[in-house]
Amino acid sequence: MKRKSLVCACLMSALLLPMWGCSSTPATSEQAEVVVFAAASLESALTQIAQTYEAQHEDVKLTFTFDSSGTLKTQIEEGAVCDLFLSAAQKQMNQLDSQDTTGTNIDGLDFVYSDTRINLLENQVVLAVPPENPGKINSFTDLAAGDYLLCIGNDDVPVGAYSLEILNYLGYSLDQLEDQGKVTYASNVSEVARQVKEGVVDAGMVYATDASTYGLNVVDAATPEMCQQVIYPAAVMKSGQADSYDAAEDFLTYLYTNETAISVWKDVGFALIAQGDN
């Protein structure tokens, strides 16, 4: 009888354990995924920041897509899931923002939670050359003559648009450069930087941060007269997952308030824009 009673007691205990919330394995909470679309020039810094952030926020998983802002904008417009968008220019963000006041959003697109939109970072366009500088290019003015091959971004890529502004300011004819075989194009700024790094071209117009990341020789930098400010806007997107909104907004806030994140931005060469200036 005692043996039978003991067995019954054990069975009762086993049945009651789940009711009391006990478990032989620790409970795990489901992670919130934040899908981030970011300009290619942000890859190095964001990858570093993400490692620290995820270590501090185990309930969040960050998934990144890095490419030209124009390509990312098109993917969002065509239905890609994106919780947070960081663009290398205002144009692409404006094209998606129903609150745009510049006349850029000609299609009436409504993908941006406008109340979350901020100007996050500032960069600078520079002229970079390979270590040996085979084209003997030491400034933008050297592009007027000589035998060289220059790489710039496509015109639908922010760095390409800035590069065209610089060429126009200096009075260079893009058609003439093309006819002389002096210019080639890349789909994003990272591709420009890689071509310079590998010596495929004699010079390239990239951001100061990419020149630093790829270890390029910078021989000149664009002045404010040459092209508009290189501003990176960021915003939480309506194309995102409903249950990821809060996590996306928290990560965006982290990018400009956390000291570690701020340090990474500065180390790479970005200038953080004070949020009071937005």
How would you describe this structure to a colleague?
The structure is a single chain. With 278 residues, the protein is an alpha/beta fold. It folds into 2 domains: 139 residues, 3-Layer(aba) Sandwich (D-Maltodextrin-Binding Protein, domain 2); 97 residues, D-Maltodextrin-Binding Protein, domain 2, CATH 3.40.190. The chain has 10 helices and 11 strands. The strands form 2 sheets. A 6-stranded mixed beta sheet has the order 2-1-3-10-4-11. β1, α2 and β2 form a beta-alpha-beta unit. α3 packs parallel to α4. The N terminus is likely disordered.
Terminus-to-terminus distance: 80 Å
| Tally of individual domains | 2
Radius of gyration, CA atoms, in whole angstroms: 25 Å
CATH architecture label name of the largest domain: 3-Layer(aba) Sandwich
Count of runs of 4 or more consecutive helical residues:
10
Low-confidence stretches: 1-28
| Overall CATH class of the largest domain | Alpha Beta
Spatially, the strands of the biggest sheet line up as: 2-1-3-10-4-11
Order of helices and strands: HEHEHEHEEEHHEHEHEEHHE
SS strand fraction: 15-25%
How many beta-strand elements? Answer: 11
The CATH homologous superfamily of the largest domain is called: Periplasmic binding protein-like II
Amount of helix: 25-40%
CATH-assigned fold name of the largest domain: D-Maltodextrin-Binding Protein, domain 2
Shape: globular
The major β-sheet equals: 6 strands, mixed
Q: Briefly note the structural class of the backbone.
A: alpha/beta
Mean pLDDT: 89
